[in-house]
Amino acid sequence: MARRVLVTGGAGFIGSHIVEAYLAAGWDVTALDDLSRGKASQVPAGVPLIVADIRSDLARSTAATGGFEVLNHHAAQIDVRYSVEHPSADADINIAGFVNMLEGAASGGVRRVVFASSGGVVYGNPDVIPTPETAPKGPVSPYGVSKLAGEHYLRALGALHAFEGVALRYANVCGPRQDPKSEAGVVSIFVSRLLAGQPLSIFGDGKQTRDYVSVKDVARANVLASGAVLPTDDDHDARAFNIATGVERTVLDLAEAAGRVTGRKPELRMEAARPGEILRSALDVKKAADVLGWRPEVTFDAGLAMLMDWFRTEG
Ligand SMILES: NC(=O)c1ccc[n+]([C@@H]2O[C@H](COP(=O)([O-])OP(=O)(O)OC[C@H]3O[C@@H](n4cnc5c(N)ncnc54)[C@H](O)[C@@H]3O)[C@@H](O)[C@H]2O)c1
After folding, report:
1. For the chain, which end, N or C, has fewer CB atoms within 10 Å of the first or last residue's CB respectively?
2. Domains of the chain, CATH where assigned
3. pTM for the full model?
4. 184 alpha carbon to ligand 1 midpoint, in Å?
């Protein structure tokens, strides 16, 4: 019998790719999403979509009664700036909503929970780059705090209810279906603006770095994390994995690469630096390779080309 998984946020950018990756690996998949940002059309045909808020009784009872082996949790409020302006609303979705799903999973006998955390925010301004999982945690935004709190609930409730929790700490994820209007999607913003013949805004000197990972590689990591044998030690980071490339790229590098791939010369508009912006970010991915058998496979230019093709046909 096929293994059953519930993917929350399954109509969203990353979640919809994860649904596809589970299907390709032979899983029986159900998606759950309130469609606040996701689109029903992004859920593959034949996959049941439960339209529900993760804070609701319906979402919790779905996790409790669906006979799922794995809960894959990607539904979230993802906007850092919104979290700064509305910290309690962010915590309500990202912490209380997640705990609601964990309660459902615990009573439904779910064996493993895979949680979308963020390596871009839980470490704050790290001293070591590429940053390993064991680096000190120091989130500076309410969103970062909500992701780290989610990891703690995952570990504590997993120990209490005998399910295994895995936290995947993503770098900047990019690829088809990323909303170019979202704050998180600088790659998507640059490619869509270049294709529309518009200038690119660079905040500060453009030398701030990020680690960009393809959504296809992220989706594959989720399937691997659903079946891998996990470490049994009980420290906070034991079952957390950076999912990234380990490569630092400046925003100026990104603009240049996006210009090369789209065949358009980028016109740069220099703007004031954003206060509080993290200056450097790249994550060490050795542990994901050693334990999950995962390595990034999509090259940066191939990822940009995939995004460009998507904008040209469907975006
Ligand atoms: N995009 C990135 O670079 C990145 C990096 C690190 C972590 N993440 C995490 O990955 C996950 C997916 O992010 P994404 O970039 O695909 O964003 P997204 O907005 O496309 O996906 C989130 C999905 O959750 C749904 N959702 C939001 N609130 C909900 C609620 N209360 N109940 C039910 N569904 C709800 C939305 O409709 C959407 O489909 C999030 O948990 C995010 O924090 C993303």
Report:
1. N
2. 4-172+213-243 (3.40.50.720), 174-211+246-313 (3.90.25.10)
3. 0.97
4. 11
